[in-house]
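Example complex used in Figure S2.
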Amino acid sequence: MKPPAFEYLAPVSLEAAVAALSNEDAKVLAGGQSLVPMMNFRLLAPSLLVDISRIPDLAYITEDGDGLRIGAMTRHHAVEMSDVVRQRFPVLHAAMAHVAHLAIRNRGTIGGSLCHGDPAAEWPGLVLLLNAQLKTTKRTIPAGDFYHGALATDLADDEILIEIQFPGLAPGTGWGFEEMARRSGDFALAAVAATICLSDDRATEVRIVVIGAHATPLRLTAAEGLLTDHVSIGAAADAAMQEISPDSDLHASADYRRHLVGVLTKRALAAAWKRAA
Amino acid sequence: MEIDARPKMIGARVQRLEDPRLLAGQGRFIDDLNLPRMLHIAFVRSDHAHARILEIDSADAAAKPGVAAIFTAPDIAGLWNPIRATSRMADYHATELPVLAHDKVRYVGEAVVAVVAENRYLAEDAAEQIMVSYEPLGDAIDAIANAKADAPLLHDDAGTNVLAARTFHRGDVDAALAEASVRVSGNFRMHRKTPTAMENRGYVADYDPGRRALTLHSTTQIPGIVRDALVEMLDIPGNRLRVVAPDVGGGFGGKGALYPEEVLVCIIARQLGRPVKWLSDRLEDLMTTNQAFDEHVAAELACDGEGHILGLRAEVIGDVGAYSVYPWTAAIEPVQVVSFLPGPYRVPNYLGRVRAVATSKTPTGAYRGVGRPISTFVMERLMDMAAAKLSLDPLEMRRRNMVQADEFPYKTASGIVWDRAGFMECLDKVASSYESLRRDQTAARAQGRWVGIGLASYAELTGLGSRIAVAPGMPVNTGTETATVRIDSTGAVSAYFGIASQGQGLETTLAQVVAEELGVRVEDVDVIQGDSAAVAHGTGTYASRSTVLAGGAAINAARAVREHVIKAAAHIFEADEGDVDAADGQVFVKGTDRGMSFRELARAVYSEMGRLPKDIRENIELEATRMYDPYFGTTTPASHLAVVEVDPETYQVTVQNYVVAEDCGRVINPLIVDGQVHGGVAQGIGAALMEEVVHDGAGQIQTASLMDYVVPTAAEIPAMQVHHLETVLPDNPGGFRGMGEGGTIGAPAAIANAITDALAPMGIDINELPITPERLFRLIDGK
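Predicted assembly (1060 residues):
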């Protein structure tokens, strides 16, 4: 479990980093929490690692109107500890406790997790839930367009994610985040995140995202459409189970994942409903 | 000088002497050892489970930078004498134990080619270039299929895949079953585990051509056994072959056997005249360290109308993997499943049959508990099943059948003799909160919560002496240990042992024993262990033996030295020996102000010429070597109680509460005993809920990283209450019973019973472990 030889470059500007990525088989190194193990397993053998950790001003959490802009090199732990995140996006704060273990949260970055694109990871689902925009060195991509499949994103080879822009939530938005994993810190067998806005005890704006039970993070639009009043939570959860195409693996069969998505959708919606004002 | 009381170091919560070193990163582990000119090995390992090796092409690899040599099996033939794990047991077939696979491979991960290079990176680069072609020989994955006569043979010379078969028999089981009021039975399955020590296996061999001497630095638990085996395999005399186990980061049995890589580093170091290192990475560890707990058990229990056991019948198939491991053999685990199945209960009629079946998987060996986690799981499930059928409380069911105080020594149905120990006392202790826990459970159930309570009782034989081999019929004496206690010319005390700590705190416990007996302070004693050169014969640390055997030897040796300390001091003080005492590092005449430190005494004895007359001096030996042999061994009973809650929708299991009462005799250090119980229970919870080595149908290992082989973390382990009973053990110098494995023995059974209890309204029996959320989903979904 030693990687083959590779070149290592630590540029101090985005321009230099992008230029370096024009080399064949070059890869961006952010926190290294997924890339380095894959290199040790020799599943990936990039010829050049472009370490972007020395480029200034890529790690920040900045208020932007009602929303937030978070730099791609921001560590998970910084988000977990941020007061403004806790105030404006409590669902992000709650989800951070499920992102691996403290040592990994200290090193791993949001941008790294998003670009790695593991469908069982929390971040890809969270940006979809919160309708975030992903700003790169070339353009800005809506979260809904970012993933093509498991571990496959819309990024070009020489494109670097630099910022995630979260638009503000409507006042009174309720939220829920429910995850089932074998152990604390493991990848989700399934997780469901939801936000709800209410008006006169009727749901007006609903977003439901499933994590770990589909090839990509997935918005459950049919379930969203079925949620009208509190009683309809069960119907929405039933619909959620039909919207996904889960895989079987060592830890959970497709059937069990589907079952879990039903349970977790119900719980996430109930929690969101309770929190919505 | 007056010192009132002997320091009571045995029984004290002494902080571990090794911890400052280990916690500050000052330990010295195998990977900290970097010798000049040292070479590194990377292996090409089989990616077939059962295949003939057709061709190995290593030409490209040999030309890669930094490569010193490449070895295949033919390259090392003649450089070593093969060894087999033999046994006097009838119906046992030893297998070869290849250092590199020759002719055929028998599991995925078996070493085929060794690439030796200037560093591990270059060795792995070159290994990638080696092409091995195979001819598949047919699947031999399933133990039940392999036991049949027409199955493909893994070892042609054995003539069968059934490497060992044994039957234990008492009374007339058929008649007992026929007359029984109640019969319960089940097909029980424990899936394969791997020990996953924090530190992987690793070896450094250093050959000195000038002295023709070899030193092997090894993560082994058994330096003495490895040394003795290597003497035979390498034709190097024992005084020039030393096996040193430095700080070792956990073993749990997985480092308690002779390994191919361990032999190979020695062969290559001697051949190349340079030190050679191999350190397993986690992938290799999960593929090649001996695995365990892979049994199919069909069992039936019969009782009378009051729940008294009448008979027990069991048929066990143990999946032992590809080779019979040295020195324990492939029989070690499966046979113990059957010999311990009757547990701590009176079982008048018993028939237990076991077959150890070779499969094309990683070999199995010892893992904490060895067989008894499975036997206890099966027996304790049967006890609960019978209790349920009789509408008897599980606690009462155990009370009615457990061996009582007036029945010791009690010979079990399989022939094991239980010595006097706190069987019922342990059960009573964990039961002290039973009634209130049941009330809490009733309240929780009324709220729709799935809460269950599970009990498990067992007894184990620990500290085995020379009467009973650790593995049946093995030719290695595991029944004695030796200690040398020495006071040197500066008064410092060194104690030498043949055991090998892997983190159990033996440096501390043995120092406590020596200090107590000799009359010095704990920190004055340096414990030297994990080195085959420390004493003439010693086998190591395994089978819950080190405190019993090495502790007994330490007492015997320290008492012998103390006699001479007193004798020398009496002469110097011109006092009667009976008036001289030693405590806290001082030797003194009782009731007077005359005394001296051990340092002053040692100087008087060794260095100050003329201080003692010649005839006295020649008869003062401040060094003694003594042995201890517990003969049969010591009986250690325990009872466990688990409270679990199952999420009624996700089926996630949470262990809410865990209570252990165990009787390990006189407790030397309660901190360390608690730690051993906590760690053992944690591994048992892993066995019950999470850990499973998974192979696909072609024998490919699916659990090849710690993301997929799921071990519990601290977050999954509850706080525990541990109660120690200290039943006196006559005819044993320290009164110590072994206890290192017990936690792992009781926990799977207690958890399985607790989950079954939680699901009782649905009538679901948990007879397969680990009981993962997926398995629970299928069981509940099927209802």
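The interface with chain B takes residues 1-5, 41-42, 101, 180, 182-187, 189, 250-253, 255-256, 259-260, 263-264, 267 of chain A (CB under 8 Å). Chain A has three domains: 7-52, 61-166, 174-275.
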